[in-house]
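Q: What would this complex look like in 3D?
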Amino acid sequence: PKEYEDNGDIIICQLSSKRKVTIQDFKGKVLVSIREYYEKDGEERPSNKGISLTAEQWSSFSKSVPGIEQAIKKMQTRSR
Amino acid sequence: PKEYEDNGDIIICQLSSKRKVTIQDFKGKVLVSIREYYEKDGEERPSNKGISLTAEQWSSFSKSVPGIEQAIKKMQTRSR
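A: Here is my prediction, written as structure tokens for the whole assembly.
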């Protein structure tokens, strides 16, 4: 798989055929994007379905990853 | 801060005044949402700006967290 987009964004991972996690430099600020893409005229384009986190928001987010794992388990138990 | 939304979704963390990470049970499937909210008629509502990951997508995503951290550092060095 490609490691960079044509515009220099770093491709971190493909979550599904249409969803990607990328890192971009937007006017000197690093953004972490989790976004769905669509194809138009043979080109892949970012859709509105997604979110771009600032480095600060990413930092709070990454700290809550263990909490997310716990909550998923809790939710899965609850729904059985 | 609240731990649950009125509809039973688990609130994991607040990324900014308008952005939240929540876990919801959607028709028996667990979804991890990172989303921006807006207020209408005194009620907070989810906007289109955001993404909801399936448990499977969350799993690939969480595995790439260390890679994201590395890429952020790489990007920050590049832009200086």
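A: To summarize the key features: Residues 14 and 71 of chain A are 24 Å apart (CA to CA). The first strand of chain A starts at residue 10 and ends at 14.
Q: Very helpful, thank you.
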